[in-house]
Design goal:
The protein has 263 residues and is α/β, with parallel strands linked by helices. It has eight helices and nine strands.
């Protein structure tokens, strides 16, 4: 197995899979992915408003902007300066064309030389770092995220902070909560709180529940059989999903971790 090249991987995905499928869950189809991103946006808005009571006028940076979902979220929240970034030329070109009011940078978050000198009130790095498979590059990415924040800035980071052991694949690494917390502390970031992002509408990687795993198997089968039916299933579950992720303190899949710079 050759060394993973994230730029090449994402350029290929974004060229061959348009829409949210290109940045989302490939096996689930566009309709289901649309509902997943609706959940992400709702949870992100709630968490951002909690930790940025007045987002009006802030300067925000989004890492790994892809199709621009979180750039739109920062618009909704009232940020006056929004900067996007992506590792791929494909995403940068598309976003620059569709969102001309947003500056979009070509940037690898794990490359110190690519990081701009500007500092931000808020940085979002959503579903990005589990694709930084090398541990040394993860450490550098966390250093860079700290450097991008103002002293009173807030980092919104989503990943799957499993309570078990780290698990590495070619283009995806699931790191434990303990691994993440230690790495953040080493690199000048303090965890404030975690918020579940999914309970029923994403793979339950951090759960031993037979029910949840059987449910997810059903979701996968329905989406592969008929993507539109998978979207309809997600639409029915969507209100319950929003309720569950609001009520629960521990997630079974992706979570948002809120971090601030250490003094």
């Amino acid at each position: 197995m050759g060394r993973f090249n994230p730029e090449e991987y994402w350029n290929t995905r974004l060229r061959t899979s348009t829409g949210l499928t290109g940045v989302g869950y490939l096996d689930l189809g566009e309709p289901f992915n649309r509902w997943m991103y609706r959940v992400r946006r709702k949870v992100f808005h709630r968490v951002a408003r909690t930790h940025l009571p007045s987002a009006q006028g802030i300067h925000a940076l989004d890492i790994g902007s892809g199709t621009g979902q979180y750039l739109e979220a920062w618009r909704d929240l009232g940020a006056t300066r929004i900067v996007g970034s992506d590792i791929t030329a494909t995403a940068v070109e598309r976003l620059s064309g569709t969102m001309p009011d947003v500056q979009v940078l070509r940037m690898d978050v794990s490359d110190r030389a690519a990081i701009p000198d500007e500092r931000f009130d808020a940085v979002s790095c959503m579903d990005v770092l589990f694709h930084v498979v090398e541990d040394a590059k993860l450490e550098q990415a966390l250093v860079n995220l700290r450097l991008l924040l103002k002293p009173d800035g807030v980092l919104f980071l989503s990943d799957i902070f499993v309570h078990g052991r780290d698990h590495k694949q070619e283009h995806f690494t699931t790191r434990s909560l303990a691994t993440y917390t230690a790495a953040l502390e080493r690199n000048g970031l303090r965890v404030v709180r975690r918020y579940p992002m999914f309970h029923l509408l994403n793979r339950p990687l951090d759960s031993d529940s037979p029910f949840l795993h059987r449910w997810w198997g059903l979701v996968m089968r329905v989406c592969k059989w008929h993507p539109a039916l998978g979207g309809a299933l997600a639409a029915v579950v969507y209100p319950l999903e929003l309720l569950l992720v609001r009520l629960r303190r521990e997630g079974v899949s992706a979570e948002i971790m809120v971090c601030v710079p250490q003094p």
